[in-house]
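In response to the reviewer comment on reproducibility (Comment 2.3), we provide here a single inverse folding case reported in full, input and output, so that an independent group could reproduce the run without further information from us. The structure tokens appear first.
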């Protein structure tokens, strides 16, 4: 058995200062019934906790660390930028460089604006969509997560799904009323909302590949249907690519599926592990943003030089030939190994995967939306998670999140992970961690 004494001690201290001992809810390991590990450092595919335990990391800071931890090129880029000063509150060249690098992969972001988190990116994109259309309602999907801004916290995925919080207190009812929710992969449910609120819907926002109810891929025709429907009804289509951007393909879900939204929100990978978000899209819409237009949005640390430097180095590494193919191979081998291990142990479960994003759902039912995801046996997941931790695998501490594969993961690491997963499935079968 591993020792977690130092983590336990640090958590006890942290609980005196931070609600629940953490600065973001899912980190508390509440759903898996344990206490969080305090991380000392990360290197390549590994995390090291304060008790000296080593883990293969499948959280990757929830997405940004696609190159693994402390990648030398990223670290060097941050250090170089830091020596020149950490923030100016004035334009600097790296902002344009990163903007150009993003636009090269995603030409539909004709113009963009950098912010400091995914939450801000989405909040700002929705304000813009409302201003552009002169309408107030938005449609989101059950189990989708778009950050914690007011109005986006109903029937959401991620930590809200993990902790069973369907609506957050503190959101004015008037705000919540402007958010309509449809079922993912169900075009009829979207059309019904457009019919019910004619001329009132400013935008449909979705994760083109859902990752915050666990990974759920769009069924053929779903994204196409949303594109047609939004165009027909005069609403904007917004892809929240905070997770999928530079992840499912270099050009994100747009490159993968060939459907182009009006606006896109980004985060995570484009900041290389530092706080960055972005929103962008058609020039005609983006030009409404101040100071070129009247829609106000600003940020003291927006376009921060260190964050831009980390993002630039990350995107630069991701340009190397064969990198996405290698990621795909490793993730496919892992998913295949997981399915084979499940069959061997006699467990009926679902491995949903797209590229380097995957979720193991403990349900016998195919998972195509949030209602299906919720049929998962979260007690089985808890045992799975705990056993993996004991065996040196840091898996996301929630059934309703994606696991992230990094380019630092080797073939040998995949084998190690599958061996640990076989043990975890045996534990699930026996009902003990
Ligand atoms: N959108 C999506 C799809 C996300 O996954 C997240 C965070 N996991 C956000 C928005 C919010 O980003 P942030 O946590 O940086 O505010």
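Designed residues, in position order:
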């Amino acid at each position: 058995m591993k020792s977690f004494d130092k983590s336990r001690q640090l958590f006890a201290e942290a609980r005196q200062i931070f609600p629940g001992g953490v600065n973001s809810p899912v980190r508390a390991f509440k759903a898996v019934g344990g206490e969080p590990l305090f991380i000392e450092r990360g290197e390549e595919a590994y995390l090291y906790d304060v008790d000296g335990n080593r883990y293969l990391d499948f959280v990757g800071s929830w997405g940004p660390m696609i190159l693994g931890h402390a990648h030398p090129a990223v670290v060097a880029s941050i250090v170089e930028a830091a020596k020149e000063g950490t923030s100016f509150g004035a334009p600097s060249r790296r902002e344009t460089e990163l903007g150009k690098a993003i636009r090269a992969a995603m030409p539909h972001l004709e113009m963009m604006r950098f912010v400091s988190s995914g939450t801000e990116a989405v909040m700002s994109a929705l304000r813009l969509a409302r201003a552009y259309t002169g309408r107030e309602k938005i449609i989101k999907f059950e189990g989708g997560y778009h950050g914690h801004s007011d109005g986006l916290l109903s029937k959401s995925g991620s930590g809200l799904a993990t902790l069973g919080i369907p609506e957050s207190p503190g959101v004015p009812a008037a705000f919540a009323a402007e958010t309509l929710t449809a079922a993912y992969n169900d075009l009829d449910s979207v059309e019904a909302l457009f019919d019910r609120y004619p001329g009132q819907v400013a935008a449909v926002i979705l994760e083109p590949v859902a990752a915050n109810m666990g990974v759920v891929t769009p069924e053929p025709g779903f994204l196409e249907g949303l594109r047609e429907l939004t165009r027909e009804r005069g609403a904007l289509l917004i892809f929240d690519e905070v997770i999928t951007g530079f992840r499912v393909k270099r050009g994100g879900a747009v490159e993968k599926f060939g459907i182009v939204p009006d606006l896109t929100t980004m985060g995570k990978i484009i900041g290389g592990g530092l706080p960055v978000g972005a929103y962008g899209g058609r020039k005609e819409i983006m030009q409404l943003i101040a100071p070129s237009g009247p829609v106000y949005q600003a940020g003291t640390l927006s376009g921060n030089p260190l964050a831009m430097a980390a993002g630039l180095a990350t995107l630069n590494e991701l340009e190397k030939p064969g990198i996405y193919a290698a990621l795909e191979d490793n993730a496919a081998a892992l998913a295949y190994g997981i399915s084979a291990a499940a069959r061997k142990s006699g467990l009926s479960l679902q491995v949903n995967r797209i590229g380097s994003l995957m979720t193991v759902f403990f349900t016998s039912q195919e998972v195509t939306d949030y209602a299906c995801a919720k049929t998962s046996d979260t007690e089985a997941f808890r045992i799975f998670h705990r056993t993996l931790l004991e065996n040196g695998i840091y898996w996301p501490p929630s059934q309703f999140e994606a696991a992230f594969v990094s380019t630092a993961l080797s073939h040998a690491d995949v084998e190690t992970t599958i061996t640990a997963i076989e043990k975890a499935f045996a534990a699930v079968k026996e009902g003990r961690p």
